[in-house]
């Protein structure tokens, strides 16, 4: 029996409260819908957190018990305190927590700070998208066909990110644009996955393949069982490994 994985789904949770069209699609919030499919996994212990919760939903006792953090934000990135971003970054870098950033989270302080980017991209009208599976042997691509279709907000290149360590998905949009839509980064001793679908007025989080990808990403992002202590800082070596 493998250990339980503690997952926290963090959502800004403003569009659903302010905009009827979004609330109709996600009456329990985007985070609530994500929790509903992750809850089908017996190993996952999933909790919800939102920007307007006390301590922005991530007090120490929650963050320090989280193995994988999912992040959806859009209109209030600037309201996320820098100190919280720093705590998240440090936990990822120390290999204590994996991070999954969704859709408009490309401009979140968390994504920018952890990955090291301004997160800039171009965007446009909602339209047909074909998500292509570019790396079928990757654990996040397990069970995903060579391509599948969504109706999504246009996100397109150039996406001003560091070259991803692994490019798992790429997308074509009906107006002719392309986008690197599923990316893995290794930062410090931790793992980060960015996935583009998930506009607040589209239904992508109901799509079976989107659900499978996010579920796969949770298992992938779980910190390793490290064979040594990950140092907190840059220790001075005062011993020799050879040449006694
Ligand atoms: Zn959007």
Task: Describe the protein.
The protein has 244 residues and is of the alpha/beta class. 24% of the residues lie in helices and 29% in strands. It has a nine-stranded mixed beta sheet with strand order 2-1-3-4-9-8-7-5-6, sandwiched between helices. Helix 5 links the parallel strand 3 and strand 4. The longest helix has 14 residues. It is globular. The protein starts with a strand and ends in a 23-residue tail after the last helix. Zinc ion binds next to loops.
A few lines on this structure:
By secondary structure, the chain is an alpha/beta fold. The chain has helices at 15-18, 20-25, 29-38, 60-63, 82-93, 109-116, 208-221, and strands at residues 5-11, 44-50, 68-72, 98-102, 122-133, 147-156, 166-173, 178-187, 190-195. It has a domain at 5-119 and 180-221: Class I glutamine amidotransferase (GATase) domain (Rossmann fold).
Secondary structure: elements and pairs:
Blueprint lengths: L4 E7 L3 H4 L1 H6 L3 H10 L5 E7 L9 H4 L4 E5 L9 H12 L4 E5 L6 H8 L5 E12 L13 E10 L9 E8 L4 E10 L2 E6 L12 H14 L23
Helix pairs in contact: 5-6
The structure holds zinc ion.
The site of zinc ion (ZN) has 5 residues, from loops.
């Amino acid at each position: 029996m493998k250990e339980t994985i503690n997952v926290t789904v963090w959502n800004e949770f403003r569009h659903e409260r302010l905009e009827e069209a979004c609330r109709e699609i996600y009456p329990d919030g985007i985070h609530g819908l994500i929790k509903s499919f992750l809850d089908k996994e017996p190993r996952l212990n999933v909790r919800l957190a939102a920007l307007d919760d006390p301590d922005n939903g991530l007090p120490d006792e929650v963050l320090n018990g989280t193995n994988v953090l999912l992040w959806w934000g859009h209109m209030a990135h600037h309201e996320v305190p820098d100190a919280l971003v720093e705590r998240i970054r440090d936990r990822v870098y120390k290999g204590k927590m994996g991070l999954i950033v969704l859709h408009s989270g490309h401009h979140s302080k968390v994504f920018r700070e952890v990955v090291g980017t301004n997160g800039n991209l171009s965007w446009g009208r909602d339209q047909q998208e074909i998500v292509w599976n570019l790396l079928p042997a990757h654990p996040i691509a397990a069970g995903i066909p060579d391509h599948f279709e969504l109706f999504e907000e246009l996100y397109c290149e150039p996406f001003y990110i560091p070259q991803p360590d692994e490019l798992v998905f790429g997308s074509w949009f009906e107006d002719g644009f392309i986008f690197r839509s599923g990316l893995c980064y290794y930062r410090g001793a931790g793992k980060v996955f960015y996935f583009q679908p998930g506009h607040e007025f589209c239904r992508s989080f109901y799509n079976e393949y989107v659900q499978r990808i996010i579920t796969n990403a949770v298992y992938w992002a779980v910190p390793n069982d490290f064979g040594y202590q990950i140092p907190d800082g840059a220790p001075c070596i005062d011993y020799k490994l050879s040449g006694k």
